[in-house]
Amino acid sequence: MATLAxxxxxxxxxxxxxxxxxxxxxxxxxxxxxxxxxxxxxxxxDWAEGQGWHNASLGPRGPIALDPAASVLHYAQxxxxxxxxxxxxxxxxxxxxxxxxxxxxxxxxxxxxxPELPVDVFVSAVRELVGADREWFxxxxxxxxxxRPFMIATEAFLGVRPAKQYKFIVIASxxxxxxxxxxxxxxxxxxxxxxxxxxxxxAAKCGGNYAAxxxxxxxxxxxxxxxxxxxxxxEHRWIEELGGMNLFxxxxxxxxxxxxxxxxxxxxxxxxxxxxxxxxxxxxxxEERYSLDQWREDAAxxxxxxxxxxxxxxxxxxxxxxxxxxxxxxxxxxxxxxxxQKLKARLTAIQRGEEADTHGWVMLLD
Length: 366
Ligand code: PLP
Ligand code: COI
Prior knowledge:
With 366 residues, the chain is an alpha+beta fold. It has 2 domains: 12-175, D-amino Acid Aminotransferase, Chain A, domain 1, CATH 3.30.470.10; 186-351, D-amino Acid Aminotransferase, subunit A, domain 2 (D-amino Acid Aminotransferase, Chain A, domain 2, Alpha-Beta Barrel), CATH 3.20.10. It contains 9 helices and 18 strands. Strands 1, 2, 3, 4, 5, 6, 7, 8 and 18 form a 9-stranded mixed beta sheet that branches. Strands 9, 10, 11, 12, 13, 14, 15, 16 and 17 form a 9-stranded mixed beta sheet that branches. Helix content is 25%, strand content 29%.
């Protein structure tokens, strides 16, 4: 289990004048959905040129004041992360690989010309918030506390250059299933739009990537699909990732493929974890380009037996159907496959402290 020394910044604790009433909170926790409800607290830390990170606090969650000229509102200088806290069977709480999120946050910060946040400060911020909102773990099966650390450029300045002032914030949201449909396998729409090009921001977790994915996502929804799939920018042939998840392909010969990290897809922490678990399961794992045409052909021939999406919000979700302007095809029987279920079961068992954490992925809180 990972541990943490004293953080290099101290958080002022501001009392909450009116936390949510227990009965209201319990009603939310019985059916949280995803991303709709928020806990009582938030973390904020400021950064200014010449001063660095300062003014750290844990206080009541609420609106923030921003100058209308703040750079984030004009040039979208914003990055974010997504990770989950889990309540274990014995009542204790745990985070899954928070240092990996901190490292990716800093990689995103570098790409968006923003200041990096020391890993220990990122992790302490998240820990402080979970501690304050410990009553907010959903009571539903598979429930968790979804944490959303993010950073915005707050300087009031309309010239186009990196801002000189920023705010780091962490909010939390009780989370159940990401997909509203609750279907056993999701249906995905292959978009004709491009998400990321070589040299762009595809590998960074910045809001702008998601803004650009909204029209393709809306198109997928309006056609009755659950997620959008993006292909590469140059040839529109190679599978990259979904709007908010990475993809894996499982074959009858015991091999597993996921697209490589070439700079245009997000380096998912779930993806990385599953690569390790799949190798432990004895699968031949390859990070390798895979084309949509090949996918269609392999699904038809039976060479490909399963495909699944993965991410913090989506966990591990089977892909049952793929549709695009060239028609559609079904994966396997269109439902969850055995390998997908096995990998999901192992990952969630580790996250919830039910399987030994041999990788040092689980950070116990309390
Ligand atoms: N790809 C995109 C575009 C995402 O938004 C996410 C979610 O964070 C992922 C992949 C999966 O990343 P992770 O497993 O770290 O949540
Ligand atoms: C996550 O899985 O944490 C994400 O950020 C994906 C988003 C679509 C909710």
